[in-house]
Fold this protein.
Amino acid sequence: MVLDGCSDGSFSVLQRAFELVEVPCVLAEKIPTRVPQTAKFVAAGTAPLVVFTKENSGRADSINLGINAARYPLVCMVDADSILDPEALLRVAQPFMDDPERVIATGGVIRAANGCLIRHGRIMEVRMPRPWLARIQVMEYLPAPRGALTYPLHSGEGLEVTSLGPMAYLASKEKGNNSMPLTGFRA
């Protein structure tokens, strides 16, 4: 976990709940960061929790610090206010197991939970919020009917990520290969 200069008391809550202890740490900077971590904390008990604190330098810089600290090849980025489906991590990891040579990234569907009934970190009922501004935010997160981005890789090959409603597809641009699911779940 990377706390990017937050001043909302998150660290105090984590420190009490997990009995965090500061430990020395020097990270190899595989990906450059603008602001290095100020401290590393680990849970005193058996919880596998590591918390890095740093000055605020933006989301991308915090993500880079998290990637530098990762011990395993797959890394998941979520915000503190995210609610994950119980099967979400298994679903986004599945394409790596199915085709580890070609899959380089997966993603999920993001929806605003404004107005939804949430209990114990789970969405119990999807509802449209009452305020108009919140309704507009919900509409912003609905998937576009069709769109595509193509990124050049090397010598004539490209990576195409296409949004087809709630399902994302990865397509190799080499010799007309068929699209394959990037994530295997629907909203």
The helical segments are 10-18, 59-69, 88-98, 132-140.
